[in-house]
Design a protein that fits this description.
The protein is an alpha+beta fold and about 240 residues long. The protein has a domain of about 80 residues. Helix content is about 10%, strand content about 30%. It is built from three helices and 15 strands. The strands form four sheets. Strands 13-14-1-15 form a four-stranded antiparallel beta sheet. It starts with a strand and ends with a strand. The mean pLDDT is about 95. Bound molecules: zinc ion (ZN). The site of zinc ion has 9 residues, from loops. Zinc ion (ZN) binds next to loops.
Length: about 240
């Protein structure tokens, strides 16, 4: 099985005008980390299916702030824990709930405005489900369109699985900070996947040690091409 990084189209080559300005409804605060001293905000991790509206803290979690009290951060994190998949790391800045905002323009079957977030038309997701692709969970958004004939856009909830292989990473401590989950490296220039870490039950996932990187299986890539989906780019990532 081959694997590909799913990304937006290269800058300046878009054929569709679709765009959005939106934020997820709720989020954990950032954290001034007492362990590594970092100013952590894991913006790539999002669970759009999670509804926090019944929580007393919901109003507070609509704002973003930098928390300096680790105990307070941890209490908020534990409150959300039962609602998210077991694989979730819940780093500072993790987002929840629907994307709220506005959208406009022509939109292809999928819209990848940021490399870590995939919006998809409802009918396109149904096509992918009918093809038997696994792990594609569409969540409602609250995007307002001004134009007529606007599509229904869903956000894919993408779980954390799989790792970059140590062979493509710099010679630093490869373990995440035990408190905030930050890594001491960014996206490698020549990425390699760690074969033993890859999930066998999903066709789309985000890397645990590179949560802004979305990886899809060859099966998913072939389906996108065969169905004629547009406005994305694929780059094969070798597996070791
Ligand atoms: Zn830390």
């Amino acid at each position: 099985m081959r694997f590909y990084e799913l990304d937006s189209v290269p800058y300046g080559t878009a054929r569709y005008t679709g765009e959005y300005h939106a934020e997820h409804k709720w989020g954990l605060p950032g954290l001034l980390c007492p362990t590594c001293g970092g100013n952590a905000a894991g913006i790539a991790e999002a669970y759009p299916s999670v509804d926090l509206s019944e929580f007393p803290e919901a109003k507070q979690l609509e704002k973003s702030w930098l928390e300096e009290d680790y105990g307070r951060f941890e209490r908020l994190r534990q409150m959300v824990r039962p609602l998210v998949p077991a694989s979730a790391r819940l780093r500072p800045g993790t987002h929840f709930g629907p994307l709220v905002g506005s959208a406009r323009g022509n939109i292809a079957q999928i819209l990848i405005q940021y490399p870590w977030l995939v919006l998809i038309r409802r009918e396109a997701l149904e096509q992918l489900h009918a093809e038997g692709l696994r792990g594609l969970k569409g969540c409602r958004t609250e995007l307002r369109f001004r134009q007529k004939n606007s599509p229904e856009l869903l956000e894919l909830e993408i779980e954390l699985h799989g790792l970059y292989h140590p062979g493509c990473l710099p010679p630093v401590d490869l373990a995440p900070c035990e408190t905030c989950g930050s890594y001491k490296f960014g996206r490698p220039k020549e990425p390699l996947l760690d074969g033993a870490s890859l999930p066998e039950h999903l066709d789309l996932f985000r890397l645990r040690n590179g949560s802004a990187t979305l990886v899809i299986t060859e099966r998913f890539a072939d389906t996108l091409r065969r169905l004629g989906f547009e406005e994305f780019s694929l780059r094969e990532v070798p597996v070791r």
